[in-house]
Specification:
This protein has five domains: 74 residues, 2-Layer Sandwich (Alpha-Beta Plaits); 258 residues, Peptidase S8/S53 domain (Rossmann fold, 3-Layer(aba) Sandwich), CATH 3.40.50.200; 137 residues, Glucose Oxidase, domain 1 (3-Layer(bba) Sandwich); 33 residues, no CATH class; 107 residues, Immunoglobulin-like, CATH 2.60.40. It is 24% helix and 27% strand. The strands form eleven sheets. A seven-stranded parallel sheet has the order 7-10-6-13-15-16-27, with helices on both faces. Strands 19-18-24-20-21-22-23 form a seven-stranded mixed sheet, with helices on both faces. A five-stranded mixed sheet has the order 33-42-41-37-39, with no helix packed on it. The protein is an alpha/beta fold and 775 residues long. The termini are far apart. The chain contains 19 helices and 42 strands.
Length: 775
């Protein structure tokens, strides 16, 4: 018996030791498997009573799958849950736990990188704008690279106390103290945990772990939206005059979420979570991903929904992946998506050749000029390199100094940025650069750059002529002449080549972008941390810089939205977006459609949405298409989202009514996108053609009592029927509904058609673009 017990004891010890080793092996294996950051959305209503609070529940849930994992953030407003870094296996285990709604992998987004008040006509319309004290109650939360508080654009002269509703704060860190804020810049915070988990601990020799802006992008966007008025502003003498943001007396709150390695979803949600708690009224977001995911897995869409549900308008850049189609991003219908156009200002520079011809380009060079009378040799970069291809693109180290010294070099766009290419030429002893294209992909639009030597960027057509001249004579010569700032350039606006285009890749029946705003060669505030080119070797420091991108167009709309919010504090985000869209213009004063720089012909609603924003008209739109949170939930039902997916987006318990028919067409949106679909059978025959579609819309009167009548433009292959054809409003905020039926009578597969629906009372025009696609 004793021997049996001894054997049993030994066997038990062996089993325990084996299990111990197995546990250690599993833990070791988990530690050495690749880890990722995940956002864990918990169902708050399912918290077990045994836990004192939700954070205890979150911690227990996480510990059940990983002893070593820690929570990066806990979220309370955008969603109920947390973010953490765990293995894929651990994420799968966590997803299957009770109370876990969704486990969303971390996403990475990138930045979408003053004349505009005059261009909008705001300087002449002060009497129509809301009083400055009302605007000063509005807080614009800018999610970006931070803020540089020392520039004059953040001066708080004339501003009263910080609004009582404000609950935010100024966080301290490297080069930034809480005292850096004032009555203008009332909040500054930074969010880096997700970024550091992905990229490693921040090297503070390279970037600051604080709200300070090491990049310049965040300072530029926030001052575009709400920069204080600054007299005698300019960039190195260019674009001189008074600079101010769209809403110069609005307050600014900066949320730094973008770093050298990008902008990460866990940080973005934490920032929006804080912005909601702090009390912002507008959120401006000038970055995005390259491919829009489904709304329940899109962290930006989820965060924007939470903000929208609390009455906060979210303005977002549409992306810089144009002119390719279906590239627009930030496309959730509860966000206002902004594309980019030009303004009527230019910064010319001229390339004068030895044959007497002169070609216009653009440049922001400020320094010692070349003689306009004494010409110097001009060469191809490839002819001054051991590698012709690299030399043509002016790749760093590719040019031979003996062949470049004292010459102007032609560099091709593609592998080296404009200012960087100029530095390559300068380092090799060149005295000037002509920067041009090799292929036509982005039209003739040119964005100016702050070169460090005499330079001019020219179009493909002009660049080709210059290159032909260089090849055709034995000793070609040239000079570069810097011009002055030119105003009144026409036509303007023109849709920027880089501005991302529709159709909407995720939801074809929602037209995106919504509108366009100025995004080319925009003057606004800049950081003191880097030079205007952003290159380490650029030692210049400026208070204003000129850059381009939908990043620049987005804050224009954010600031204008602040003006509308101040004038109409009860308006919802959807009402404000509607006012911006239905009063936007899509034609010039001569009646011609706004041009696309790529085609040099008429642009379409897939390029400019409803058109170019008109802030003065938007203050008095007459009617608006209002949309509630419940409407957006119905929209998700129409997309056949599951209850869990809907809750992931909305953070509320909502179940689609099984007896109700949900249609995307019925979302009360201020524009119409109609994809007419067909199926092709195995023999190539077209079947199941969608020829008739009916959309329902509801208008809300935000003006005086009036009767509005509908008119629609003719579309050659589609019949458009509006019922009823007139709507009479007896009082303010009265609602009236109508339907639009689209009947296609001649299908043209793969083609597009465009139209416009307008409601007018003789004073107001409430316009909506219509876009048809045959798919």
């Amino acid at each position: 018996m004793k021997i049996f017990l001894l054997i049993l004891l030994v066997q038990t010890l062996v089993v325990l030791l084996t299990l111990s080793h197995l546990d250690a092996a599993v833990e070791y294996g988990n530690q050495h498997r690749p880890k990722k950051t995940y956002i864990i959305h918990m169902d708050k209503s399912n918290k077990p009573a045994v836990f004192a609070d939700h954070v205890n529940w979150y911690e227990s849930s996480l510990k059940s799958v990983s002893e070593s994992a820690k929570m990066l953030y806990t979220y309370n407003n955008v969603l109920h849950g947390f973010s953490t870094r765990i293995t894929e296996d651990e994420a799968h285990l966590l997803k299957n736990q009770p109370g876990v709604l969704s486990v969303i992998p971390e996403t990475r987004e990138e930045l979408h990188t003053t004349r505009t008040p005059d261009f909008f006509g705001l300087e002449k319309s002060y009497s129509l704008l809301p009083a400055s004290d009302k605007v000063s109650d509005i807080v614009i939360g800018v999610l970006d690279t931070g803020v540089w508080p020392e520039i004059e654009s953040y001066n708080d002269k004339g501003l009263g106390p910080v609004p009582r509703s404000w609950k935010g704060k100024c966080e301290s860190g490297k080069n930034f103290n809480s005292s850096s804020c004032n009555r203008k810049l009332i909040g500054a915070r930074f969010f880096s945990k997700g970024y550091e988990e992905e990229s490693g601990k921040i090297d503070e020799k390279v970037e600051s772990k604080s709200p300070i802006d090491d990049n310049g992008h965040g300072t530029h966007t926030s001052t575009t939206a709400a920069g204080s008025s600054v007299s005698k502003a300019s960039f190195l003498g260019f674009a001189s005059g008074k600079a101010r943001g769209m809403a110069p007396t609005a307050r600014v709150a900066s949320y730094k979420v973008c770093w050298l390695g990008g902008c990460f979803g866990s940080d973005i949600i934490a920032a929006v979570d804080a912005a909601i708690e702090d009390g912002v009224h507008i959120i401006s977001k000038s970055f995005g991903g390259s491919y829009p995911g489904r709304y329940h897995s899109d962290t930006t869409a989820i965060a924007a929904f939470a903000a929208t549900a609390r009455g906060i308008l979210v303005s977002a850049s549409g992306g810089n992946n144009g002119p390719s189609t279906t590239t627009v991003t930030n496309i959730a219908p509860w966000m206002t998506t902004v594309g980019a156009g030009t303004i009527d200002r230019d910064f010319p520079a001229y390339v004068k050749l030895g044959n007497g011809k002169t070609y216009k380009g653009v440049s922001l060079y400020k320094g010692k000029q070349l003689s306009d009378k004494v010409l110097v040799p001009i060469i191809h970069g490839g002819s001054a390199s051991n590698d012709t291809d690299e030399g043509n693109f002016c790749v760093p180290g590719s040019l031979i100094p003996e062949k470049v010294n004292g010459k102007i070099v032609i560099c091709i766009q593609g592998r080296t940025g404009k200012v960087q290419a100029g530095l390559v030429v300068k380092d090799a002893g060149g005295v000037g650069m002509v920067y041009t294209r090799e292929h036509q992909s982005t039209g003739e639009e040119l964005s100016a750059a702050p070169y460090l030597l005499p330079a001019a960027a020219v179009s493909l057509e002009k660049g080709t002529e210059i290159r032909t001249y260089v090849d055709s004579v034995p000793n070609p010569t040239a000079t570069i002449i810097q011009g002055t700032t030119v105003l009144g350039v026409q036509p303007s606006p023109i849709v920027a080549s880089f501005s991302s285009r529709g159709p909407n890749l995720r939801t074809r029946r929602i037209l995106k972008p919504d509108i366009i705003a100025p995004g080319v060669n925009i003057l606004a505030g800049w950081t003191g941390a880097v030079g205007p080119s952003g290159l380490a070797r650029d030692k210049r420091r400026v208070s204003f810089n000129i850059i381009s991108g939908t990043s620049m167009s987005c804050p224009h709309v954010s600031g204008i939205a602040a003006l509308l919010k101040a004038a109409h504090p009860k308006w919802s985000p959807a009402a404000i977006r509607s006012a911006l869209m239905t009063t936007a213009y899509s034609t010039y004063k001569n009646g011609k459609t706004i041009e696309d720089v790529v085609t040099a012909s008429a642009a379409t609603p897939f390029d400019f949405g409803a058109g170019h924003v008109d802030p003065v008209a938007a203050l008095d739109p007459g009617l608006v298409y209002d949309t509630t949170v419940e409407d957006y939930k119905d929209f998700l039902c129409a997309l056949h989202y599951t209850p869990e997916q809907i809750k992931t987006v909305t953070n509320t318990n909502f179940t689609c009514n099984a007896s109700k028919v949900y249609n995307v067409e019925d979302l009360n949106y201020p524009s119409f996108a109609i994809p007419l679909l067909a199926e092709i059978d195995d023999f190539g025959a077209v079947t199941n053609v969608t020829r008739t579609v009916t959309y329902t819309r509801t208008l809300t009167n935000v003006g005086t009592p009036a009767t509005y009548r509908a008119s629609v433009s003719k579309v050659d292959v589609v019949k458009i029927l509006v019922k009823p054809k007139s709507l009479s409003f007896k009082k303010a905020y009265e609602k009236k509904s109508y339907t639009v039926t689209f009947i296609a009578n001649n299908m043209e597969w793969g083609s597009e058609r465009f139209g416009r629906l307008e409601w007018s009372d003789g004073k107001h025009i409430v316009g909506s673009p219509i876009a048809f696609t045959w798919t």
